[in-house]
Amino acid sequence: MEMAVDVLRTNPLRSFLTILGIMIGVTTIITIGAVINGLNSNVMSQIQTLGSNTIICYRFSWATLGRLSPEVLQRKELKAEWADGLAQLPHVTAAAPVAQIENYALNSGSSMVRRGNLRAKNVILEGDKPEIAEISNYNLARGRFFNSTDEEHRSAVTVLGNITANTLFPNDENPIGQEVLLEGQSFAVVGVLEEQKQALGNGENPEDNTALVPFSAMRKLHPEFKDFVLFVKADDTQNMPLVIDEVREYLRRMRRLPSDKPDDFVVLTTDTFLDFWKEISGGIFIVMLAVGSVALLVGGIGVMNIMLVSVTERTREIGVRKAIGARRINILTQFLLEATALSSAGGIIGVLLGWMIVMAMRLAFPSFLASVSWTLVILGVSTAGTIGIFFGVYPAWKASQLNPVEALRYE
Length: 411
Hints:
The chain is an alpha+beta fold. Helices cover 54% and strands 17% of the residues. The protein has helices spanning 2-10, 12-50, 70-73, 82-87, 132-136, 148-152, 162-168, 215-221, 240-255, 270-313, 315-323, 328-364, 374-400, 404-409; strands at residues 54-58, 92-103, 108-109, 111-115, 118-128, 140-143, 157-160, 179-182, 185-193, 210-214, 229-234, 266-268.
């Protein structure tokens, strides 16, 4: 092994150029793997805020890849009053309809909230009943959420998202009790939501640019809106399969679906979103392997090429070693060790470069928890070493097969 390292040390520039492809491949694997780890952490934490015992009912699924069929898109809306029936089911602690006016394609709202000369644009307008605070675990930075009195009297009150409140009330001004114009009508601010975590990316989260109003006030503002989402909270996670079945049965009954027809609605849980994310992250991982594999393949070919050149250059040395008693296995092992050491060095440097890139990302985006796991490190170095063995076998075998007499006469 020491002899192999000495040979590599005598040609540092050539060795560096040889392992460049392996370095790039391992750096790619480490960086993208760390990014996926960060995305997993962010997505999991956001999904968990829904609560493991929360059920979402809608006319079609959000957790799907590709376009929805026209038949699915034309399904009839769920009715808001069905939430009252869902709340009466066994093992259900709360149920509530949600009316949200949002451009899902752009992931932003279409409303404007004003206060004097200040304007908050692209605000997501949402109508909620008081029960939604219990179901969705809303955290308030200031003030309070709606209560039953607000709902009964269609009170003109609103709870603002973090971005909306900061836009309309800059310099840490207290918005509680202040008036804002929403859809041209005056609303009193009773609460401000805490900043929400963003699953993907950094910067401003569109979900923080919101204005929540009582459900009854929302229906007064937009009587034409009927595309409701129904939220249900089970009393215990262990009862989730039972509650899901009861919710599905209740909605089928309300839809008057015969037993031979499939559901024309979906029942979503945190597991649904977790499975959806695993599908996406699995695709990202495959792309990562494809990109990294190309660079590693190029690096492996470079290792084989340089080892063949090395065999040619050191033909006389091989002859001398065989003449003084070196066996074929000794020559084979030496050249295999050189190829493995060369590739492993590229793998180690690639890991270090990847780690530095990830640390730079952490400094630039503190909220994005990208991390290099030991699994990624072991995968990077072991893959590099394996490539060295695979692409070094032929040059090592060729060196071991040289005839000592002919090798000594080689000029």
